[in-house]
Amino acid sequence: NDYLEKLFMKLDTTCDGFVDWNEFCTHLLLLYRENDYLCVKSEKPFVEEPKIRHITHNRQEQTSKILAVQGPLRYLTVSKEGAICVWYPSLTVDKHYVIADQADDQ
Predict the structure, then answer these.
(1) CA–CA dist 92, 49 (Å, integer)
(2) What is the DSSP letter of 43?
(3) Over the stretch 1-20, which tens digit does the pLDDT of each residue have?
(4) In angstroms, what is the C-alpha Rg of the chain?
(5) What is the model's pTM?
């Protein structure tokens, strides 16, 4: 009985003593959205454990952005100096690009 009273108080957002269809649907939507967020959050972003090692492609550049791209899954890192790396899910480098300044090209 105490559980039902607490549930009713959660559902009755207008505090009018009634629970209408809109309040009920809003409660269910928020409940399922929270459950979905918790399920997605618990999934591991990597397929396997990363290997800690020195990466020669990085050149100690500061990474400013990391993106996960689907189909097939790849990770992209972009540094402030203009280096772009494409990584496999196993955290090995697929491709490495360096965007040079106009002054450096001459």
Answers:
(1) 12
(2) S
(3) 888 888 888 888 888 888 88
(4) 25
(5) 0.42
